[in-house]
Request: fold
Amino acid sequence: MCLRLNQEASIIAGPSSGLNLVAALKAVPDEPGNCAVVIFCDDIWKYTNSCAKHLPELFGSREPQIPAALKSLEKIMEAAKIGPDSLKGEEVREYLAEANPVVVDVRPAEQFEGGLRATGARSLPLPGIMDEALAEEYDGSLPRDKETPLLLYCNRGIASLTAMMMLKSMGYSHVKHVVDGMFEWWRLSLPTENSGMPLPMAQNDVEKSTVQKLSLIHISEPTRLLSISYAVFCLKKKKKKHLYIK
Reply:
């Protein structure tokens, strides 16, 4: 009944109003001279979210509405992601050699302290850039001279991209960041500290391969020799089995 009132009579009655009308139609005989007053005690507007959730067919297919400002910001970030200030491969090495930038780690402080990191990097977590209330805590991590070249990195280039855009808006004119973050830094064999500490947790096959290579480098010499001996033993055993089958 609520749906019929909305669609057929253009009355914005809610569910309770529909029930009231149904009850009135049942209680009052349909006879000449009878008159009834039905109070529509609610309207449909406050149920819009509930209807959209439980009765989506009423609204048809709809694309999520993204605010225009957010769309513009996404386009800016996408352009920056492939722009000249997003460095990867030899571009990182060349920028380090030519500009001698201040290297800034924008990961959380605990990841900076407890994980593999670039040698000489300064810790300035992203919230310290985004939130003025936290800026004083990290005062000194950024040079006062806003013409100083900066190179930012994080785990995989996401937070550092955001930090780069923020610093540019604050007036730092020579800011670049490392695409793929610490994974790319290690793949380029650039200097690192906390060499016994792990890389960030891998999220794809390329990162898993990088983590595996790092693990092989950091195992002790006795463990390495034992692994090699075991591998040789397995190969010999496999070869003997193959000859016996023939």
Q: What stands out?
A: The longest strand covers residues 102-105.
